[in-house]
């Protein structure tokens, strides 16, 4: 083995060892090095996305049947899904902007809840309203 090959081999070994060190440390301590600050908010926003998409599917079905009585609900559910997806992503990475954005999402959730509560006879709308209420409460806890 020549000197250059030896140095390259040692350098490669050092990189491999160094790359595994933080992971090994995290595994030894049993705790995450970067715990989720907004875990409840992230889960609540994710649930809102799920129920909001169910509500949207129902609204689109009604529109397809030429029933436009749920047009405002469709609009608010669409905004809810978009906003909660973004909030979920920010919360997942502990973004410093999560609190500021949560304030806006709280308003969107409240608006959607009001629209969905106009249609208690549909399970999709009822579930979405309940999810919006819970998410708005979580948003309020962290909003700046």
Automatic annotation (TrEMBL):
<dbReference type="InterPro" id="IPR030913">
    <property type="entry name" value="Csp1_Cys_rich"/>
</dbReference>
<dbReference type="Pfam" id="PF03860">
    <property type="entry name" value="Csp"/>
</dbReference>
<dbReference type="InterPro" id="IPR005560">
    <property type="entry name" value="Csp_YhjQ"/>
</dbReference>
<dbReference type="InterPro" id="IPR006311">
    <property type="entry name" value="TAT_signal"/>
</dbReference>
<feature type="signal peptide">
    <location>
        <begin position="1"/>
        <end position="26"/>
    </location>
</feature>
<protein>
    <submittedName>
        <fullName>Twin-arginine translocation signal/Cys-rich four helix bundle protein</fullName>
    </submittedName>
</protein>
<keyword id="KW-0732">Signal</keyword>
